[in-house]
Specification:
The complex is a heterodimer. In chain A, 35% of the residues lie in helices and 18% in strands. Chain A is of the alpha/beta class. Chain A is globular, with a radius of gyration of 22 Å. In chain B, strands 11-12-13-10-4-14 form a 6-stranded mixed sheet. Chain B is globular and about 60 Å long. The model of chain B has no long low-confidence stretch (mean pLDDT 97). Classes of the chains: A alpha/beta, B alpha+beta.
């Protein structure tokens, strides 16, 4: 295929956001090329056959909040996207009991009732409130963040008021929102529930991808994200993608190609060419230069600004902001090939529980202690884990009768005392496997192959700085108009014709694609 | 007199978590085995779903004039069909209005199996006058399973010695499953890769067990009628008494439909000898049908706006509906949808509809009535060619 000498846009990085940006630009008739350093697209959303016949969703594992408008605009189902339901969560407890949330509301209620009749009732009220909160905050996900002049909480509310759903919030809900924005998830949940294992499991979802514990202020906000998925409940943009998260990337890539975008793999970019404060193209590591009217970086803010361009092309204050932008990768991944599914002590046998998630979060103290290890530079000896068996949801992920097990693990700090070594990686893997063994005795004997991924591995393979899966911590001070830096949250950068489209921009993290879409809209809005 | 149980009931009843049953041709069948039909639906599109379709009416038609009898009745050319072929076909009354639709399997020379949604024994006998043919109802003696989904072939292949790779779409073969003789046809009601398995009712349970056993590593999932209903709408497949009325049951002329009006023009072999309804159909073909049967895709943004106006996120029908819903254009009603629902795969609100004349042209903008918080509203929609979903694997 004859490539044009010059493009309308070059997208650096074929992660899911870069692909989304490429697809939207190509859809608008632009000549677009995506440059990916790895042999395959997807970035951290890849599925790879690491062990013969077993497909691992290497880094990510569920489709969290893939934006419905992206699914529609790019017609992703026609390009192979099929999101399968992942409905239950079982939390094994230390005493051999369990807490389960099932797909069926009544069944979940009855299960909660077993632990606390009071909580079973509070659960519905809590769900209703969170539903309203999510509805109020959700429009922000689809909007370019406005740039207020101060960071006073009143300005925060002024910002939120821009969302038109927000207008309907009464005092009660406004207060709840303020609490969500400021409290720790544990404290917030304490106001609602008495069942410790329930609070532990819920709050665990509030710490994913952060270097914070359930008792750290600001973690309550992340609880909301799960209810945003619920708003799309019927649409179901949440679940397990058939073929793993790599299939999501492939479907977006296929849509982008369908619109005429060119995607080049094994094409690492060395630097962005800047002339007179304006990006004019890129130089590849092999020395080739490609010019374009616009250059878009899907990489994280550190690589986008401190790696691809020279500091002298950027305002000093901005450089300082980016240098302070926190990554602090805190999670790892253990992927296993199994010859049989593990039977958990709390719910013996093989059954429907294996079609959902197992959350290793038996108590708030357990999760907080896992954080304590990390706070002082160690990986958690007994970590929080979110376990799924992709082959139970999509049998194509493993040979018939065999299984893959995906274990998301937190905490595994990037800055480990003494640094990560092969021995430390295996010790981390042992800690994970041994902890699971405690809840599912005999499980270790079914392991055919083990892949342990530390934040350092994530950085090394995907390029994500410090192995942060969200391209920068999802902490309140790094969200909305602060992502990645004050004044530069609208996908533009201090270098003209140089844009950012990764999860390091608003709204960030998860396989959501919103950053990529909003970046494309901003670029098109600038008349590129 | 209670509802009858199918030959698989012992197995299906044990699986029924929600005790959700429905009636079908006098039998009781599962609506959904789990509390929601969600997973059963996804199995059809992602792995494989196993349906008990035993309640279908089945007739064995044998004898020298078997093909002649069938050719008198149905619109397709049975005489031309080869042994091993399966034909989908409607059949009409003398006025060219559809009585029923089903399949005809050419089992051997002069030996056919016909399936139907309604009892047709009397109609078959009436048409057999003067012919050397034997018509036998075998509904009760014949059990039937439908295995549908991308893994259907792998599962079935593990259960039988018969090579399935060479079995083409709408063809059949004899085979054995665990020693039980069966007929396997590459047919179904989902628009996916799929097979139907026909067997002696007495052998039903061992065959079910064999399929579950070989299918489990491939994600086989017993599924009920709710899941099937969503899939058949995606596949654009008609359902009698829902999308059209048998001319035998219609109370007024307007309730009757011709094959042309149901998008079944391709099944009408006007070149063959006289058959029921031929003169009327010849005339209608020349004139053009008054109605077109087509797909409707509701516009998401329009739906979202209608719900946002009352402060709600869009509510979508999680189960397929089966009611008559007005379709309009420029404020005038131009047709009606007869079934519809949310396609979890396509992420689209889809419906099957009857539209007047040229409104059935794909791409035409129309409006579908929806009820938002007790108020009738009209959502923008677009006429879409059927089927909505047509994967390569269906025929490959």
């Amino acid at each position: 295929m004859a490539s044009p000498r010059t493009y309308d846009a070059i997208i650096i990085g074929g992660g899911h956001n870069g692909l989304v940006t490429a697809a939207y630009l190509a859809r608008a008739g632009k000549k677009v090329v995506v440059l990916e350093k790895r042999p395959r697209v997807g970035g951290a959303a890849v599925t790879e056959e690491v062990f013969p016949g077993f497909k691992f969703t290497m880094f990510s594992y569920v489709v969290s909040l893939l934006r419905p408008e992206i699914i529609r605009d790019l017609d992703l189902p026609r390009h192979g996207l099929h999101v399968l339901p992942l409905e239950s969560t079982v939390t094994p407890m230390e005493n051999g009991d369990y807490l389960a949330a099932w797909g069926d509301h009544d069944e979940t209620r009855r299960e909660l009732y077993r632990h606390s009749p009071r909580d079973a009732e509070a659960y519905d009220e809590y769900g209703r409130l969170m539903h309203f909160m999510a509805q109020a905050v959700k429009p922000i996900l689809a909007m370019v963040p406005p740039d207020p002049t101060s960071f006073d909480p009143r300005d925060l509310f002024a910002l939120l008021r821009l969302g038109k759903h927000f207008r309907g919030l009464g005092a009660e809900r406004l207060h709840a929102l303020f609490k969500l924005m400021t409290m720790s998830s544990a404290d917030f949940l304490d106001e609602w529930f008495e069942t410790d294992v329930l609070k532990a499991t819920k709050s665990a979802s509030g710490i994913i991808g952060t270097f914070l514990g359930p008792r750290s202020p600001g973690t309550a906000y992340v609880l909301l994200h799960h209810y945003m998925g619920e708003l799309d409940g019927v649409f179901r943009a949440w679940g397990f993608a058939k073929g793993g998260t790599g299939a999501v990337s492939e479907s977006i890539a296929s849509a982008a190609r369908g619109f005429g975008a060119e995607i080049r793999c094994d094409a690492p970019v060395a630097r962005v060419l800047v002339k007179g404060g304006r990006a004019t193209g890129v130089a590849l590591e092999n020395g080739d230069e490609i010019s374009a009217k616009v250059v878009v970086s899907g990489l994280d803010p550190r690589r986008t600004f401190l790696g691809l361009v020279e500091e002298k092309d950027l305002p000093g204050e901005f450089v300082a902001d980016i240098k302070r932008f926190k990554f602090r990768g805190s999670s790892g991944k253990v992927n296993l090939a199994l010859d049989a599914l593990p039977s958990f002590t709390c719910m013996p046998g093989i059954g429907r529980q294996h079609r959902g998630a197992f959350s290793i979060s038996p108590s708030l103290e357990y999760v907080e202690r896992a954080y304590d290890d990390a706070k002082y530079g160690e990986f958690s000896r007994r970590p929080y884990m979110d376990i799924v068996f992709p082959s139970m949801i999509d049998p194509g992920m493993a040979p018939p009768g065999k299984h893959v097990m995906s274990i998301f693990v937190q905490y595994a700090p990037y800055n480990l005392n003494g640094g990560w070594t092969d021995a430390k990686r295996e010790a981390f893997g042992d800690a994970v496997v041994n902890t699971v063994e405690g809840f599912a005795p005999g499980f270790k004997s079914h392991i055919l192959h083990r892949q342990v991924i530390t934040p350092l591995d994530i950085e090394r393979i995907t390029g994500l700085s410090e192995g942060n899966i969200f391209q920068g911590e999802l902490a309140l001070h790094q969200l909305f108009f602060m992502r990645p830096a004050a004044g530069w949250a609208k996908f533009r950068t201090p270098v003209r014709a140089y844009y950012q489209c990764g999860a390091g921009t608003h709204p960030g993290g998860g396989i959501m694609g919103a950053s990529g879409r909003l970046a494309a809209l901003a670029i098109l809005g600038d008349g590129a | 007199m209670t509802l009858r149980q199918t030959p698989f009931h012992q197995r299906t009843a044990a699986l029924s978590e929600g005790h959700a049953w429905r009636r079908w041709a006098g039998y009781v069948v599962a609506s959904a085995y789990e509390l929601s039909h969600d997973r059963e639906y996804h199995a059809i599109r992602s792995s494989a779903a196993l349906f008990d379709v035993s309640p279908l009416y089945k007739y064995m038609i044998t004898g020298r004039d078997a093909a002649r009898l069938l050719d008198r009745i149905v619109t397709r050319d049975v005489g031309k069909a080869k042994v091993g072929q399966v034909l989908y076909t409607p059949w009409c009354d003398p006025e060219g209005k559809v009585i029923d639709d089903g399949t005809i399997s050419v089992l051997a020379d002069g030996r056919y199996r016909m399936t139907a949604a309604d009892p047709n024994l009397r109609w078959l006998h009436l048409n057999a006058a003067g012919l050397d043919v034997k018509v036998e109802e075998v509904s009760e003696q014949t059990a039937a399973l439908s295995l549908q989904g991308p893994n259907a072939r792998a599962i079935l292949q593990n259960a039988t010695q018969q090579d399935l790779a060479s079995l083409k779409y709408f063809h059949l073969t004899d085979a054995k499953i665990r020693g039980t003789p069966v007929t396997i046809s590459r047919t179904g009601y989902t628009g996916d890769l799929g097979y139907e398995i026909w067997l002696d009712a007495a052998q039903a349970l061992p065959v079910w067990d064999a399929l579950i056993e070989t299918g489990t590593p491939h994600g086989i999932t017993p599924a009920g009628m709710l899941a099937l209903d969503v899939a058949r709408i995606e596949a654009g497949l008609l359902l009698i008494e829902v999308d059209y009325f048998s001319s035998k049951h219609a109370l007024i002329e307007a309730q009757k439909s011709s094959p042309f009006e149901l998008g079944l023009g391709w099944t009408v072999a006007l070149g063959k000898d006289a058959f029921n309804g031929k003169p009327a159909l010849v005339e209608e073909k020349a004139r053009g049908p008054a109605w077109q049967f087509t797909g409707i895709a509701v516009d998401w943004d329009s739906l979202e706006r209608l719900y946002a106006a009352v402060g709600l996120p869009p509510r979508l029908p999680t189960q397929a509906w089966r009611t008559s819903v007005p379709i309009s254009s420029g404020g005038r009603q131009v047709g009606y949808a007869t079934s519809g629902g949310w396609s979890p795969l396509l992420k689209q609100y889809i419906a099957l509809a009857h539209l007047e004349g040229t409104f059935g042209t794909p791409g035409t903008a129309v409006e579908m009535e929806i009820t938002v918080e007790h108020h009738r509203k009209r959502a923008a929609a677009r006429v879409t060619k059927l089927p909505f979903f047509n994967p390569d694997r269906k025929r490959a």
